[in-house]
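pinned: reference chain
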Amino acid sequence: MKFTVKVLAASLALAGSTMAFAQKGETVKIAHIDPFSGPFANVGQNQLKSWQFVAERLNGANNPAGVKFEITGFDNKGSPQESLNALKAAIDQGYRYVTQGNGSGAAAAITDAVSKHNERNPGKEVVYINYAAVDPALTNEKCSFWHFRLDADTSMKMEALTSFMKDEPKVKNVFLINQNYAHGQQVAKYFKEGMARKRADVKIVGDELHPLGQVKDFAPYVAKIKAAGTDTIVTGNWGTDMTLLVKALNEAGLNIPLYAYYAGVSGTPTALAQGKDMNVSQIAISHSNYTTPEMRSLRDDFKKKFNDDYYTFQTYAGIQMLAQGMANAKSVDPVKVAFAMEDMTFKSSSGEGKMRKADHQLQQHMFISKWTKATAKAPYSEENTGFNFAVVKQLEPYVASTPTSCQMKRPG
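pinned: its structure tokens
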């Protein structure tokens, strides 16, 4: 399946203006590779719309390079192999910029394939913008000059989360439940390491890995959680795996604190609202109630247009980063733009972000937010539930910044 939406920028004449865009009027085609069918289709569809909506919003005179972004979706069905097929199709069609986010397995396959393609095809290089695949290996031992990550990786999020949880005295007996692939395995690994350093008294009473996108009923897992004497759950689950886990917890009447990575992703807020006073906290680079007029307007206008939530704020950072990189490079050539984006500071949803040169990992703020009834002060309604994720704590970039083992090979 292939979805194509040509984003047409309003051509605003700059006659008489002193501002000059080096690439004004050029079109930059971006191939967006993610699942648009299968168990995670609702997430993929939302994020394709997010990329397209932000691109339209920031096109032309609304970005520092003056370029037009054209976003096209390629369905990878959540599979690394299908991702490679989609990447080949995009490259054959002339795409020089690629985005992907759902699944670190797919991300690793794309990173490797892009690196090999660029080595074999000088002059036809491709840049890969990873907006949500969070396996730390992608900016450590598997790092690539052609890969840029916009989300905080699993270890960064867990460093922030465990720094917060260590001060929660009620956290004593933790059950880890995660998807059985790179990301889920890393969530469990980094939680155990982080809490061992910060709160050695915390016990891991369960550590379950389940098949990715295949479990239809989480009741047996919830029974294990209950039987283990759990007082706290930690999960990196996303998509249907998160939604069905919440549903099973609700049905079992097990309302204990749950700390999550992706509780605000499509479908899960509705499931949370069906429970009674769900005690859920989230670690993320975003939250429901942005204070800047620009981000509030973007979020609200997205909802009016699609009756859906705009929760992937990395798409905003991605367009801003590319546009700023193109303006700095005075070119849309991927090689020049990639060099320009290294160590570049640019506008993200939560203020300024900096793309670390050593490993191409964005350094940015993070937030602990909690599932809370909407108020006059924090009024946004996730999936029209009357609830949202209200900020409990904002964490400065240095709190979660982790070292890198990346030994990056640069072209030239």
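why pinned: The chain has twelve helices and 16 strands. Residues 156 and 402 are 6 Å apart (CA to CA).
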